[in-house]
User: Fold these one by one.
Assistant:
Number 1:
Amino acid sequence: AQQVPSWLVVVCHGFEAFKSNPERDFAFLAAALRSAANGHVQVLHCTANTGAWATWDGVDVGGARIADEIEAVVQKYPPDAHVPFSIVGHSLGGLYARVAVGLLYQRGYFDIRLQPISYVSLESPHLGVRRPSQTSFAVKCIDVWARHAIFGRTITQLYLNDGDVNATVEANLPFLVQLGLPGSKWVTALQLFKDRLLVSNISWSPQVPYASAALSPFFPYDRQTILKSSPDAGLILEHSGFSDACVQSMFQGKPACALHGLWTQQNHLACASQQSLLKVSAQTEAAVGVAQPLQLFPDPQYTGFVCDSQQEFAFPPELMRNLQVCTLRARLNY
C-alpha cells in the first residue's frame, strides 16, 4: 500500500488541457501547499482530460474521468486510511471537479476513505457561458454553432442547449442545471466540503462571464476606474465569507479595509474609496454577502433566461438561486 499523505489535493485543468502542462501550471500552488503541510501533502495533477479532444465530449464524461483517476490513487492507500481531501478546478476544471466529487460521494468514498475539506473553483462557468440575444454578431454566430453541437458536447452543455431549462423531468434539464439541483448527489457531495471558495476575474474574461464564475447577477465595479487606478496584475478587489484570521493572513498581517481593500503581488495594501471602486446600492451590497440567498426574482414561477446587470450573460435564475443557497461559502474577486 502507498504511504498515506496528511492531505490529498487534486488540481484539475480546464478546456483543451492538452495544450497545457498541469504540473507546471499548478507548480506554485503545489509548492505552497507542500510548504504549509511540511511536505506531507500529495498533489494530484489530473491528466485524465489532457488528451487531444478529451475536453470536448461533455462535462459529465470529463468529470467521470477525473473521479476514476482520483479513485485509482485512493485505492492504493491502506483500506483503513481516512485522508483529508481538497479539490481545485480551473475554468472548466471547476465543473469537472463538481462532477467528480458527486461520483466519489455516490461510490461511498466520503464515508470511509476521504474527508472533504475544501473545494475551490478558479474562474469556472458554474452557470454556463450563454450570451444574451442582444449581443454582437460574432457572439451570435458562436451561439448558433454551439446550438448545433459543432464545437462538441461540452460546448453545447456550457450554452445550456442540451436540454430544456423549463422541463419538469430532471433527465430533460440541461446537465449544468441538474448539477445544481438541491438534494442531488452533486449538491449533497459539495455541501460536505467545509470550505467552498469561488475565485472570479472582474476584468471581463472572454471565456467565462463574471456572473457565472461568482454566482452574482450584479456587477458592482467600475471597471475603467479600477483598471486606470490599479493596473497591477493580481489585485484582490473584494472578498467575502472569510474568517478574520484568514483575512489577516491574506493581507500579510496588515489591516483589511472592510470589503474595499486592494492587495497587490507586491504585498501593498491600499484603501481605495468606496465611491471610486464600487457602485454601491442595495442590490450590489446584497450581491456581496453570502450568508443569505439573493432574492433576485420574487416570482417563483419565472421561467427561461435572464441577464446579469452588465447584459453580458444569460442564465436561468433558479439555477443561480440553487447554487447560492446550496454551495456558496466564500468569494474572492480579482
Note: The longest helix spans residues 59-74.
Number 2:
Amino acid sequence: KDLDVCEHSYKLEVTEDCRDIFKQFPKALGLIVLFASSVAAPSRKLPPVPGVVKGVDRMEDTFRSLGYAVLRLPVNLASWQYKAAMKAVASVSFPESYRHIFVYFTGHGGNDSIDTPDGNLKLVDITNPFSPSEAPHLECLTKIFIFDTSSLSKHSILRSILPHSVLLFPAHPGYPAFARTDDCGLLTQHLAPALRTSSKSFGDIVVDVTGAIAKEMKDDPLWINRVSSESQPLLCQTLKAEVSLLKERMEAMTPLVIIQKVSPTSLSVAVSSPPSSVQFHLQHLHLLYKRQGAEQWTQVEVNAVQGGAVVISNLSHGKHYRVKAVAVYPGDEEISSQEMPCDMPTEVEPVLLQDLEYCHVDSVEFKVFQPAKKDTMRWFGVVCQSEETPQPKPIEWPENERVRISELKPGVQYTVTATAHYPNEESVSVTKSFEIP
C-alpha cells in the first residue's frame, strides 16, 4: 500500500511536469523522455557507468536543437519511479503540433529489462503504457524507444513493438554498449550527431548508424577482446519509421509568404512567422525581393512575432521579381521560404488604384495612372457613367494625380473606366464600380 501511494504521488508529479512543459513549448515537434542508470551489474561483472550522464546531456542538446520538448528524469531512480513516470507521460494529452514521442534510456540491461538501483525494470513496463489499449489518445503519434544498453534479448524487441513505433538497440545481444565507463554509450556517440546533420529519414539514419557501430566493433581490438568471436556484431533489429527530424525541423522554422495584391508599381505581400518561432527562439524576420537577374536582394524588416503585410513600392512595369522571407535564429542560422515569382503589369496597361475614397455625400476621389510607355499609345481617356446617365462622361484629370468626381447621387451605381488606345484599333481598359451610400 505504501508503494502504491508513492507511485500515485510520483505519477501526479510527473504529470504536472509534462503539462508545464507543454505550456512552455506548445509548438514543439514532439517530446523526448530521458532517463539513465549508472549502477553496476555485478551478476554480469559490469562496472558502474557514470558516463551515462554525458549520454543524456548529448541527447537533450540534440533534441532541443531539433525542436523537441524535453522531460529529463533524475538519474538512478527506483524502478517503480520510472514505471510511474512512463504511465504519467502516456496519460497526458499532447498538443496538436506534437508528432512523435521518444523515450531514451542509457545504462546496463539484460534479460528483457534495464538495471536500476533497486533491481531491474522490464522493457514492457516502459513501452506498454504507450500502447493503444493503455493510451488510445496517443495512437496516431509515432513512438520511438532508444535503449543505449547491452545484453538485451533479441526476442524482446519483437514482442514489444507497438503500432507506429520503433525500438532501437546498439548491438546484438552479448555485446557491451560502453567501451569506456566514463563516456556515453556507443549508440549515443553515433546517433546524436547523425540526427543533427542528416536529412535522411529516421529509419535510414538507424541503418547507417548501426552499420557504423558494427564496423567499429568489428575493427576495434578493444571490442574484440571483450566479446567472443562467435558473437560478431549484427545490425540491431528495428523498423523504419516515416520520421524525418531535420526536415520537420526545417518546416517548423520556415516562414510563409503570400502575394496578396499587385499594383502598377507595388506589391502587397503577407509574411507569416514560422509555426515554431518561439520554440526555436526566432530573432529576426525579413522580407527580401529583387528583380530577376539582379544579384542583390533588398531587405525589409517584418515583425518577428506576428508577421504582417509589407508593401513594396517603386517597382518597374512589366518586369519579373522574386520574393522570399528569411527567418533568423540564434547563431545567425537563416531559414528561407520558397521564392515566389511575381510579374508586374505590362507597360501598356492602364490602372485604377484600389484606394477609392468617399470624400462627401455626393463625390468620390481616386487616382489614375496611365501607361508608363506612351510612345506607342494614341490617346488615353477616363470616363464615368451610370444607369441614369448611360452616355459616358469624359473626366479631365491632371496626369498621375487624384481625380475627384462630384454631383453624384446616393444609391446610384457608377462606373469609371480608364482606356488606353493603340494603333490598329486596339485598346486596353480597366473598370472600377462604386456606389455613394
Note: The radius of gyration is 33 Å.
Number 3:
Amino acid sequence: MQVLIYTSFGILSVICAIFHILANRTQQEEIVTSNPTFIQFQRKYFLVYFLALAADWLQGPYLYKLYSYYGFIEPQIAVLYVCGFASSVVFGTATGVLADKFGRKKLCIIFSIIYSISCLTKLSRNYGLLILGRVLSGISTSLLFSAFEAWYVHEHIETYDFPTEWLPVTFSKATFWNGILAIVAGIVANLFTGALHLGPVSPFMLAIPFLIASGVLVTIQWKENYGNKKIKLRNSCVEGLRHIVQNRRTMLIGAIQSLFESVMYIFVFIWTPLLDPAGPPLGIVFSCFMVCIMIGSSIFQLLTHYKFAPHTILNISLILGLISMLVCVASTNPRHFRPPEIGRASCRERV
C-alpha cells in the first residue's frame, strides 16, 4: 500500500507539471509584473494569506483520524463534520456584511484567533468541546475565503488605484500557490504524524504558529478598510434569495453545484475510514487528491482556451465525477462492508 501511494503521488505530480506547462503556454504574457509597487503590494497580501491557507490545509488529512483515535464511532464523527459544515453555511452568509460594517482587517485578526482556539480544542477528548471546535472551524473557513479577498480588492482599487484588469493576475497566482500549499501541507502533516510519531493531533498544533504569524502580520502591516456600513444582513439575504428564485439559470446553477458538492462532502467524510484499515500514509493520500485538483484546474484552462462551451465543460466534469464515484463504490465492495462493526473495532484498537 505504501509503495502504491508514493508511486501514485510521483506519477500524478509529473502529470500535473506537464498539464501546468501546457496550460501556461495558452496564457498571454502578463505585462504588470514589472510594476514594483504592485509586486510589493501582492507580496504583502500573499505572505499573510498563504500563512492562513497553510494553517487551514494542515488540518485536512487527519481530522477523521483524530476523532477515531479518540474513540468516537462513525455516527459521532459524522455529527462533528456536520457541525463544521453547518457553521460555515450559517455564518458564511453573514461574513461579507460583517466585514463591510466592522472592517476587513478586524475580521482577519478574529479569524486567526478563533481558528487557533479551534485547533486547541483538538487536544481535548470531550465531545462537547470538539463540537465547539468544529463550529469555530466553520466560522473561520467562512472568514478565510471572504474577508481576506475583500480586503485585497478594496486596497487594490481604492487605495492603490490599480486597474481592475490586474485583479485576475493576483487571484490566479493565489489559486496556483493554494494548490502547492495544499500538497505540501499533506506531506508535512504526514511527516509529523507518521515519520516523527507525534500523533494525529500534531498537524493541528503545527497550524497554530502559522495562524498567529498571519494575525500578527495583519495587525502590523495592513490598514483597515470598510465596505457599505449601511447594508443590513436581513436585506442582503432577502435580496439574494429573491434573485435566486426569480432567475431560473441562477437557481439551476446553484442546484447543480449544491448536488455536486454534497457528493464531494460525502467523499471527504468517508475516504479516511475506508482506507485507514490498510494503514496508508493519509497525508500523502491527501496530497494526491490536491495534485488531482491542480490537474483539473490546468485541464479547465486548456479546454477554455480551445473554445469548449461552458456547459460542455460542466458535463465533462459531471461525467468524470460520476465515473470516479462508481469506481469508488465498486472498489470498496459495499455488499460486504459494514461500517458500524468496522468503526467499533477500529476504535477499540486505538483506545
Note: The first helix runs from residue 2 to 25.
Number 4:
Amino acid sequence: EMCIRDRYQRRVHGETDSLMEMAMVNGISFPFTEAELKILNGVISQVQEEVRQKFPDPESQKIFASPNLLTRFFVARERNHDATITMWRNWLEWRLKEHPNRISETSISAELASGKAFWHGRDKVGHPCMIVKIKNHFPEQTTIDRSILFGTYMLEKGLRLAEANGVGRICVIWDREGFEVSKNFDSGVVDLMKRMMKIFQEYYAEILDAMYVINPNFFFKMIWGLTSPFLHERTRARVRLCPSKDDLLNYFERNQLLPEHGGTSNYVHSFVLPTNNDVPELKDMNVSVSEEEKFYSIPNASQSMIQEEDIYDGILDEHSHDRLVIRAVSYTHLTLPTIYSV
C-alpha cells in the first residue's frame, strides 16, 4: 500500500520513480515498505554495475539486469539483499552454461508432437495457460534429461508469452484425465518432478499465478505429498484442486478452454518441425540452414531487420556481426521466424 500511495503522489506532482514502476511491472503488484524498496534499489544498482562490467553491449545489460527479473528474485528470497544477489548470480551462471533460450525444437520434437504439454488460451486476468495432459507422457519413450529440456523450453516460451501479454505470470491446467499408473508413471517421474521444481524455483521464480489440477485423486495427492515439500509455501498455495472441470469457469472464459475442460475453443494441438521452405522470407536470401539445430544463418543481414521484442536472452557476442541468426518457431497453422541474436 505504501508503494502504491507513494507512486500515486509522485505522479500527481509530476515526478517519476522507475523502481516503483518496475516493482509493479507486467501486472504484478508487490507492495514494499520504504526500507524494502531501498534494499531492492541497492540490488538493482549492484547487478546493473556487474552486468556493465561483464557485458558491454546494451542488449545484454537490458536482459541480464532486468528490474522485473530482480524484483521477482527479491520476493523469492524474502526481500534479502545478499540472498537475492546470490540467486541472480546462480541464474546468470546457469543461463550462460545451459542457454535455455536456444533449446532447439529438433531436440524435443517428439515431446512437442506428443501433446503432453502445450500453450493455449489465457485466464480471465490474461495469464497464458499451459495445458498438461499427463496421459500423453510415456516414460519408456523418453528420458529424464529430455523431459527436463522440454520442460525448460516450455517455461521459456511461457515467460515470453506472459511478458508479451503484460501480465508477467503464467497459469497451468494439469489434466489427469486418462492417466494410468502402468502407462504414464514410473519411479523416474518423481525424480523428474523434483528436478523440474528446482529449475522452476531457482530460475523462474514467482512466474506461476496458479496451477489447476483437474480431478485430483488419492494417487495424485500421494505424489503431491512427496514432491510439494520442495516448493516454497507461496508456490504450494497457488495449486488449486478442481474436483470438477466446471470449477475452471471461475478462472477462465469458455472460449479460452478446450471442450474437454468445459470450454468452446476449437483449438487442436499439432506440431510439425519447420523446414527451410516453411519460411518464405528466407528462400531468396542465400540462407544456410543447420539441419541439426534448425538455426538459419543469413549473411549480411541488416540491423533494421530486427525488432527489439524479438530478441530474448541472446548472447550477442557469440555470433559474427555480419550475419543474422534466427530460429523458426512453429505454430499450429503458421510458421514464422523468431530472431534470437546478431
Note: Residues 1-18, 285-342 have pLDDT under 50 and may be disordered.
